[in-house]
Specification:
This is Xanthine dehydrogenase accessory protein XdhC. It comes from Halomonas llamarensis. Pfam families: XdhC_C (PF13478), XdhC_CoxI (PF02625). With 287 residues, the chain is of the alpha/beta class. It folds into 2 domains: 98 residues, no CATH class; 154 residues, Rossmann fold (3-Layer(aba) Sandwich). Helix content is 34%, strand content 21%. It has 9 helices and 11 strands. The strands form 2 sheets. It has a 6-stranded parallel β-sheet, with helices on both faces. A 5-stranded antiparallel β-sheet has the order 3-2-1-5-4. Helix 3 packs across helix 8. The termini are far apart. The relative contact order is 0.11.
């Protein structure tokens, strides 16, 4: 039986940033005396996994704990952690290590897409380069395309229970409803409006479809303020499709409408540390 090689820190970092998942990068930046690893040693930490090592022992467990505390609290950015190995870490080597912790939040935006038809497929393709988590739902079996398995930050979910699927969405998700069935569309919009914490709700269809839905949803107890939260037809705020009703054109208009709503989430690879902040971390002062 072939043993799988452990994932290195740089492989894990690439995978987690590609998939938009929360993680921390721990880097030994300075050391003095006898220490387990040299400056430049790195380790990647998530809520339930560790890739690579800073040398093991109590010191490494303390780094992992510090990283996971910051991941759990949502505290982003960089910080410097100091470890006196004979004091704080209780290790016999007795050296001193400074570790830079960088916390990456993962994708800041979630798109919940209901419907794996032609328009849904085009929207998923268009969303591939964007730093969004995409949750793709459909009540039918075997409708997701094979290529979806390789798309980063995409999760395909067969959802027989529509209301349960809506209840499981993260707060502040952006939802697009475009299933194959009007009854499903109406049930989904009803459930989404009951959540009261969706960032936006879009529904595919015509003005006449929305007029019918508005009447039924109003009868179900949704007031005018709630109903105005639903965009229907989708893509109209960006100028619509100009008469082109092909799936790609509808998807393109819907994405153009979504972009300003979902915002430009902070990209981890564009973050930096101001030189003044760096001097403060190391206890230095400008001359």
């Amino acid at each position: 039986m072939k043993t799988q090689r452990p994932e290195s820190w740089h492989e894990a970092l690439h995978r987690l940033q590609r998939d938009g998942l929360p993680h921390a990068l721990a880097t030994v930046v300075t050391s003095a005396g006898s220490t387990p690893r040299e400056p430049g040693a790195r380790m990647v930490i998530t809520a339930d996994a560790v890739c690579d090592t800073l040398g093991g022992g109590t010191f490494e467990f303390q780094v992992i704990d510090a990283a996971r505390e910051r991941l759990a609290s949502g505290e982003l950015g960089m910080s410097l952690e100091a470890f006196a190995l004979g004091g704080r870490s209780g290790q016999c080597c007795g050296g001193f290590v400074n570790v830079l912790l960088e916390i990456f939040p993962g994708s800041a935006a979630t798109l919940a897409l209901f419907g794996a038809g032609h328009v849904g497929s085009e929207i998923v393709r268009l969303a591939a380069p964007l730093p969004w988590q995409v949750l793709w739902h459909d009540s039918r079996q075997g409708v997701f395309p094979d290529w979806a398995e390789a798309q980063p930050r995409l999760t395909c979910r067969h959802t027989a229970g529509l209301r349960a699927a809506v209840a499981a969405l993260p707060a502040n998700s952006h939802a697009l409803v475009l299933t194959h069935d009007h009854a499903e569309d109406r049930e989904l919009v009803d459930a989404l409006l009951h959540r009261n914490d969706m960032a936006s709700i879009g529904l595919i269809g015509s003005h006449s479809k929305w007029a019918s839905f508005r009447s039924r949803l109003s009868d179900a107890g949704h007031d005018e303020a709630a109903l105005t939260r639903v965009r229907c037809p989708i893509g109209m705020a960006s100028g619509g499709t100009g008469g082109d009703k092909t799936p790609y054109a509808i998807a393109l208009a819907a994405m153009a409408e979504l972009l300003p709503l979902m915002g430009s989430a902070e990209r981890a690879d564009r973050r930096g540390l101001d030189p003044g902040e760096l001097r403060a971390l190391f206890g230095q002062h400008p001359s």
